[in-house]
Amino acid sequence: MKNDHPTFEQLCHAVLEGNASEAELKQFRERLHSNAADREAYYQQAQIHALLIWKNGRAAVPESLVLAPMDYSKKTNIIPFPIRRALLAAAAAVALLLGISFWLVPDPEHKVLSLAIEKGVGVEILAASESPYKVGQRVMLERLEMETGSLRFRISSGAVLDFEGPVSLEFVNPMRLRLERGSINTDVGNEAKGFVVETPTANVLDIGTRFGTSVCADGSTDIAVFEGEVQIYRAGLPLTQESRLASLIEGEAAHMSARDAKLERVNMLTLKGGRLQVRGLNSPDSPVVLNVSDNIKKANFYRCYSITPEGMADGALASLTLKAHLQLKWHAMPGQPFPEELKGADLIGTFQSFAKRERGEPSKNDISLDLSRPCAVYVLFDTRATPPDWLQRDFRDTGLRLRSGPWGKYAGEAIDIEPDANGELNLTHSVWRRDVLSPGIVKLGPPGISGKGYRYAMYGVAVKALE
Q: For the chain, what is the domain count?
């Protein structure tokens, strides 16, 4: 009776012996695609199988290479020529098995292009624009260089990467990539923890995360973490405690200079609209906001502001991800349309821990916007808090209201909020406006009032060019 639920070891044996059924091949492919441990187990079994082929003269080794008893002499350490040939043949068998098992096993959804052994790392194309590759295509890559277009692919280790050109990549192995130029976004999921992105100035080791990496024209490196954590090491050195420079968590970004290998905070990060990803070098930055900075001077502080050009809309991300509110977004008030006045504004994501800076003294902190042209600057302020003097003096309340949420139930900023009809925690923000009639620096003050504690949400910021 045919076993409908074979173990992975039985599937391996059937594949390696060449007598696997179509159903077993399908199960085998699915196990390899979904489980890194099974891939490692197959690698081990393929080695053992190849050794048995060499030692016992199985069908995979030509008859002329079957070892005779005289070849098992223990009187010499010199390997006879026939055995050396058999070893090479066995190694070739292993290479062939490993090269084609994962990517070239017959798949009803993908046409097999070739059985030739290729060098490089196996990738599956998930999305492509203006590139030589097509969605669903599986290729082996050693290097990848694109001046224009975009690409999203899954490496055989399970890591998913995407980018916009120009970019230059070298695939070292399924768990290590060398970025020589451009920007890439990496999502390692659960399968590829330990994935490393090498750059000319840093090695970035993920421990389960989504992060962006950019190599600038001078060879320096920018790293931004959107979820989880990465560890940054000096380039060209083993990944040891001595070479480790810092750990970054979600919402943090750092710059590794090429000149003095010094790690510094990145104040502002430009994102793609609708997704937490760094933009490619061909993507324009905001034509309105040149820079966002603050007066925080704390050691090992890497919190980062984000800016999404023309990104303000219903459902726009309000900040870089933080553990207490991973999906914090701006929304219209219930039953109301999103304010037309705010649509299409450049959205600046602040970080909610702003209110906890300087050990609970928010009156010491401010934000500076460097504007390139006349603009309307909007501040989205938590309605539960008393507006500070700078906001009442320099801005006017438009009467518009927005919500931010959903907030995590353990977020300190929303600890006294009752869930809405959908069971979510949302905060209401008043919309304040200031018209700035010339380019220059605009300073926004702290959210709290001097001498008083502040346990409310940090304000949001949007900027829109005046017509």
A: 3
